[in-house]
Write a structure and sequence with these properties.
Length: about 160
Amino acid sequence: RQNASENDVPFIMDNEINNETKRIIIGIKMVDGDGSVPLLSLGYTCAELWKEDSDMNPGKSRVVTREYKHEGSFQIDDPMRQGPLSGEHCDILGNHGVLEDLIKIAAGDSVEPRIVSKIEEIAKKIREHPINAQEKNNGDGERDGEHVDGNNDSSNDKDEL
């Protein structure tokens, strides 16, 4: 390994762990998403950070979050794709709903938000989490006399999200 030190913790995945109730399959925790990117990474920015009144959207651009539920099916003529209702990663580019929305936007029409996941509920939990509460943070990285570096290691905090 390049630049390895004696303090490095090796990454080890136990592929013998399977737990249906916790959605762990061969050592991999399964979550909502598009088959390769978790929902939190896919949707949080659009559902929360890029809202028109946000500092993360300085141009105040209109952001419309539209989700497409994955309803894949086997396609005999194209077995690598999952059909016109697929919501998986790159396969969504052939989703008929996405294509219809793109044509509407290109023609000058607009589309309205459509949320089918729990991303708004997740965003609310993040927004209301104590580490993000504005009244507790005085703006200089200090909160209640402690330094805030984003590495709060409270296991309860991680489980709540």
